[in-house]
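Notes, Module 5: Reading structure tokens.

Key idea: the token line is not a picture. It is a compressed description, and you learn to read it the same way you learned to read a sequence, by spotting repeated patterns. We will look at two proteins. The first is printed below with its tokens.
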Amino acid sequence: MPPPLLLVWTAVQDAQGRVLLARRCGARVADGLWNLPGGAVEPGEDLRAAALREVREEVGLELDPAQLSSLGVSSFDSFAGTANAAGEVGSAVRGAAFFFRARARQGEPRPLDKTDAVQWADLAQLPSGCLPWLPEALRLHLLQGARLTQQRGAGQAVQWTVLF
């Protein structure tokens, strides 16, 4: 099994509380699915710097680092078999996802690196075609304030546990 992944995801919210979603395009994982801006932390990179970089690269927004807040972390251990929008199946992955929230931003979102569309989505009405774990991650970390969660499984069969 490969070494654990460190990921960052940022819930950029507008004045109405909607979250910014980006549809992945040309990505190795979850191609064609809606997700928060984010991705892998580069070796030696600070988590906050990684979140800011991913948002800038994927949707073109400049975020104020002082306005970036932590929503918590989720460990994940997904089994082989997670499929993307084209039905291609991936291999087992494990690691930790660090969730952030940003409200202040500069610029207007636009699709850039590994994205082909962006949209503001109401938390109660996320679009079809989201990454399977996204609705539950937003519910637990953004709406309910969970600080530490654990995910096990793959696709629609992910089981969540709130640890704190």
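Here is the second protein, with the sequence above and the tokens below, as before.
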Amino acid sequence: MIEDDNKKSSHGFLKTQIEVLANHAIPAKGLALRGDPRRSIIRTIYELDADLLILGPHHQENAVSLPVSAGKRGLGSVSDYVLRNAACSVLIAKEKQMVPSWRAL
């Protein structure tokens, strides 16, 4: 079943990321939420009295809701909404990009 596969994948990803943070002595909690992502994330921030939320720049969406310079993708609508409405600090994690070796000096 697709929903079960997605749930297993989400939980596996979260478990891995929590382990990485724990190896660096950073206490963290990972949650897989259901429902409207904007409202679910904001509600959970309040429920947990979170200090920091780490969020990706977009989630399978093409919407660009913040102005960006030519040739660059902006934030997706969920990231944008959470960034503007969260009651805690929000870190938007950039996607890993390939950098030409001559630029990595």
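Summary for the second protein:
- Strands lie at 52-55, 89-92.
- Residues 2-23 form the longest helix (22 residues).
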